[in-house]
Amino acid sequence: MSDEWTGVADRVAGQVEDFLGGLSRLASGEGGDQTVPLLLLEVSQILLAGAQLGASADVILTSNWEPDVGPDPDIDTVREGLAKRLAPIDEYVEVFDPYSDTKVTPYRLSDDLADVAVDLVHGMQHYQAGRPTEALWWWQFSYFNNWGNHAGAALRALQAVVAHSRLDVPQET
Predict the structure, then answer these.
(1) CA distance 85 to 50
(2) Domain residue limits at 26
(3) Is the Cβ–Cβ distance between 120 and 19 less than 8 Å?
(4) Which of these ranges, 22-31, 41-50, 85-94, 101-110, has the smallest mean pLDDT?
(5) Does the N terminus or the C terminus of the chain have fewer Cβ atoms within 10 A?
């Protein structure tokens, strides 16, 4: 692996750790009344890592298989904690692919954020096993294939909630 890719892997791993830690803390209730704005910040920051991966050349593995990292982590505690804290705004609708699909699809913020976490943890397992190329490949592939879409949809929903809370003014009677 070139020094350039090693640096990218190290930076993305740090961003993934920050996101996963922040998500866990917010799911456990540490954010209080600031949970939604803090989630907006967390999702924005991990999408920066995704954008960097998207703008990078394709990461190509030397072999045509991905080494086994073991079972996927159990993210249900995070998903359930987020669902509890986001209950009034958890459900929203989104256009899945604005270029090939015009119908709205129901989403849940708690599911989207947990799905992002599962993909990122999978890559982190490669990184922690000393396989930064596999980690980068997985993060890049799953960004295009799954977590980028879910994080982008969640970002739009969170931004809408924050915007409504700041801009919606009750009508004077």
Answers:
(1) 26
(2) 3-167
(3) yes
(4) 101-110
(5) C
